[in-house]
Every structure is written in C-alpha cells, then in structure tokens.
Amino acid sequence: MKAASDANMPDATFLDSTELVLNMGPQHPSTHGVLRVILKLDGEKILGTDCVIGYLHRGVEKIAENRTWAQFNPYVDRMDYVASVSNGLGYCLAVEKLLNVEAPPRAQAVRVILTELNRIASHLVWLGTHALDIGAITPVFYCFREREEALNIFEKYCGARLTTHAFRIGGLQYETYDTFEQDVKAFCDMFPPKVDEYEELLTGNRIWKGRLTNVGVLTADECKEYGVTGPLLRAAGVKWDLRKAQPYSGYEKYDFEIPIRQNGDTFDRYIVRMQEMRQAVRIIRQAVESIPEGPIMAKVPKVIKPPVGEAYVSIEAPKGELGYYVVSDGTTQPYRVRVRPPSFVNLQALDRMVRGGLVADIVAVIGTLDIVLGEVDR
Amino acid sequence: MAATPWESDLARELKERFGAQIGETSTYLGQNFIVAQPEAAVPILEYLKLEADFDYLVDITAVDWPKRPERFDLVYIIYSFPRNERVRIKTYISDGYQPPTAVGVHLTANWLEREVFDMFGIEFAGHPDLRRILMPEDWQGYPLRKDYSIIQQDQRWVQENLGIESGQ
Questions:
Q1: CB A185 within 8 A of CB A192
Q2: Gap between the Cα atoms of B166 and B168, Å rounded
Q3: Which of B60, B69, B145, B151 is the most buried (most CB within 10 A)?
C-alpha cells in the first residue's frame, strides 16, 4: 500500500540512501586505544572498513638505531605494554642469537615463569575489556583483581609493574627475591579457581554466547593468508604454537598442551584464551618447582658488540608471533631492529572478519583481536 | 662466524628452478636465507608457497645501506606450517627501483609493503593501495632511511597540523 504522503517525498532522503560512511574512533572506548575505523554501512550491515592507524607511532625502530644494544632494551616494553615481559624476552633472545650465547638454565626458568605470568596478565586485560565491550561489567573487576597479584610479583622482582625491563641481554640482572617461589606457588594455587569463576559468569551465559558465536569468523586458510597467529589461529583449528614448534628458553622441558578449537569464531577464541591461562599456570608450576641453581647471567661482554650479521628470532607472545629481525654492523649500536608485531598483522584481518556482519559486532571483533595500539603503531 | 652454504633438497631444487636468479643459498646462526635477483623474489615466494608449503608470509622489511649502489636490502621472511621451517629471501635493490608487489601471493603483504613504503620510500609496483600507514599521509620524507636524522621532522606538517613551531 502506497501512502498518499509518499508522493511528496523527494527521491532520496538521508534515510533512504543505502550507503553511509561512519567514523569510529580514534577516541572511542571500545577501540582499546587510538584506532580509527572508517565503516561503510548499509543500514546495520557493514560493507567495508578501512583502518587508520599510526596515532601512537613513536618510531621505536628508529630509536633503536640511535641507542646501544642494551639501551634499547627498555624501549621494547613500551610496544605491547600489557605484555612487556614477552617483548623483552623476544628482544633479549634475538640479541643473544646474534652474540651466539644462551642464558644459563636458572635464568631461563625464571624467564619462563615471568613470561607466563605476563601471558596471564595480558589475557586478563583482554578478558576484562572484551567482556566490558560486550556489556558484561563484572568480569573486568575480577580480572584486574587477579592481574594485580601477578603485577605484585613483577614489582617485588624488579620494581616495576607494567614496563618491567625484567630481562637483560644474556640472562637476568637480579636474583629472585626471598619469597619469590612461595609467591609464585601461591598464585598458582589461587588462580585456577578464579578462571572457573570467570567461566561461570560467561561460558554458559546465553547473552555472551549469542553475542560471540559465529561472529568474526576467520578460517584456518584465511588466517594463514593474512599471517594471523596466536589464539586466533588456534581457534581456527591449527595446532601451532611457537613454544612447541620451535621451543626457546627451555619450553621443551615443560609438559603442556596447545588448546585449539575448530570454528574460528569469537566464542572459540574466548575458549582458547581461557584454556591458555590454565596451561600457563601448569607451565609456571613445573618451572617454579624445578628452578635450577647456578648463575643468572651468561658470559656477555660489558660492551655489547655483536659480530656483523643478522638474525630473526620470534616468540609466542600472548597475541601471536612476535619477531625481531636484528642486523648488526659490528658496532655498539644496532644497525637495524625490525619488530614483527602480532597486533599489527592481526589487525589487517579486521576487514575480512566484520565484512557482511552487523555494526554492533565490530566491537566484539576488535575485542577478540586483542590488539594493543602501542604495538600496532610502535 | 661467517655464513656457510645451505645444503638441502630445497636449496638445490630452488637453484635448479631459478638458476642464475638465485645468487646464494646460505645458513647463518642456523637460519637459512636466499639471496635473489629483485625480480625473482615474488616468483620464488609463489613457487615456495605452491610447491613447498611455505604458506605463511611472516614479514617484509628493508634495511638501508646508503653507501652501496643497491641501496636497500628487501627481506621477506616466510614460514611453512607443515615443514616447521623458516626461510628468508633477500634482494638488493637500488633507490627508485620498484619491486613487484607480493599481494597476489600472500594477502599479508598489503600492510607490510605499505609500512616498508612509508618508512623507506620503496614503491611496490602493482600494489592495490600504496598509501602511508603509520605516518600522516602528507608527511614528507622517509624516517627509517639512514640519512633521515632522529630529530628530523616535517617542519611544515608540524606547523600546519599541530599549530606549534616545532615538535622538538
């Protein structure tokens, strides 16, 4: 039925037009930093996206070329600032590779403990903010409560909570503090029941499932095509984790599993990350019970001058493959440090994940990508 | 420790297939790399992806050597999930040379090449969307070139867009 008033309407009104370009960010609470996404919409449906990044670009790679090898170490913490220990581990391993030295066993065990604690802390930030974006307010308080315990251990160990600079090239600077092992064990006892608590709130929750299931699907082939790694790849059914594939820092000594799921949607990525936190506790417990005695620093010269050459070393950071391509020209300063950031590469898949979906889903998808803009922009 | 020749079936296969386009297949610190002619890089990526399961392009990056006639190293890092093996492909290119894009082989290359363009001014021929990615779009200069000083900035851009004399 055509209403009489229709005749007076112009051919195309604003409400009539099918395409709308909407600007999301850079100041938007659910973009987790300064990310701007330009959305092309048809009603509620997303026709395409374009990410504008670089607001947090500080030229980390340029800074590296103007510092000595050791001086650059604290800078890497500022990239993925919720997983700074992982950043530091990757950089130290890369320079150690160039120097052809290996950290002593005691240092390796302490590195594993702190890195896995940091993986838990990073996943807790992800879980809290992701749930907050979806509309569940409670988990963020719970997550930050437990994250505090992990950060307290960092603080007692090296004095810093967020940008820790916990490791040095060749091993560790500080011996563990007196109650380190007790604190870590206490954390391992305290934490798994808390994960149960989060799961009780979310896993079976109908709203949570409804918002996440079949949202932002990325298949295994698409992941490989886009270079997407980490929990996103594992949620698509690829059993691949650098800690198993190419073990570093003694990960081959510990018994743990790589959690995977098959659908590659946002809900599966949630499950994978929850399982990863449990596996991290498992690794920490094994490591803390068998910290070997011995030195904490390898024989590294006071002035670090790696021989001319280059190396690429990567680790399994909480977000995916974090790689360092380091080039030395034989001087005290790096000739080139290239960081292969997982967040940057994973963010590229955003368009594929949300295209054809609803505008409300983009918030869930940015959350599930678990990006840190400090690392995207460097 | 110098680089030693990389002896493997894959290296021999590549040399047979690409002949003189591959200059060197070596190992340094246990990491394998290929030095290839610039125009051969993308065909090698494609060959390795289709014939040898190197299905994951990890990274593309560049290194600036201003004193060399071929000014830039262009480095592709690839990985194979089935083989659990990583290989680097290195090419030496001169300033102004436009290497062909790898987007047709690996979609990841899109942003990675944009970043190389942004930082080094290397233009990739045939790239679908070659814009700056981290720096502002109308910024002048390429920050990761060695002749770009660490305190250098695009004065005009800073004054026009930030309304301040200088960012220093």
A1: no
A2: 5
A3: B60
Residues of B in contact with A53 (CB under 8 A): 133-134
Q: Can you list the domains of chain B with their CATH numbers?
A: 4-134 (3.30.460.80)
- List, in order, residues 6 or more apart from A211 with CB less than 8 Å away: A134, A135, A266, A364
| Helix or strand (DSSP H, E) at B5 | strand B4-5
Residues of B in contact with A348 (CB under 8 A): 107-108, 110-111
Nearest to A123 by CA among A207, A231, A224: A231
pLDDT digits (tens, 9 = 90+) for A87-128: 999 999 999 999 989 899 999 999 999 999 999 999 999 999
Residue with tokens 């790679």: A61
What is the third-level CATH fold of A50-377? Cytochrome-c3 Hydrogenase; chain B (1.10.645)
Between A61, A226, A338, which is nearest B107 by CB?
A226
Question: What ipTM does the predicted assembly reach?
Answer: 0.89
CB A74 within 8 Å of CB A92 = no
Q: Which helix (H) or strand (E) holds A284?
A: helix A266-289
Percent of chain A with pLDDT over 70: 95
Domain range annotation of chain A: 50-377
Give A82's contacts (C-beta < 8 A, 6+ positions apart). A121, A122, A125, A162, A372
Residue B133, judged by CB atoms within 10 A of its CB (0-12, 13-18, 19+), counts as buried
Collapsing DSSP to helix, strand or coil, B160 comes out as helix
d(CA B25, CA B42): 17
Q: Is A59 an interface residue toward B (CB < 8 Å)?
A: yes
In DSSP notation, B46-86 reads HHHHHHH---EEEEEEEEE-TTSSS-EEEEEEEEETTTTEE
Half-sphere exposure of A322 (CA within 13 A, CB side): 29
More confident position, B21 or A67: A67
Reply yes or no on whether the pLDDT at A16 is more than 80. no
Residue A190: phi, psi to the nearest 5?
-75, -35
* Inter-residue contact B158 to B167 (CB < 8 Å): yes
Our CA-based measurement puts residue B77 at a distance from the nearest CA of chain A, in whole angstroms, of 9
- From A22-36, A148-162, B86-100, the region with the lowest mean pLDDT: A22-36
A312 vs B88, B119, B135: nearest CB: B88
Please check whether residue B107 touches A, CB under 8 A. yes
Give the model's pLDDT for residue A304: 87
B122-157 confidence digits (pLDDT tens): 999 888 888 889 988 888 889 999 888 888 888 888
For residue A173, pLDDT over 60 is answered with: yes
| Mutation for B interface: A325, A335, A369, most B CBs within 10 A | A325
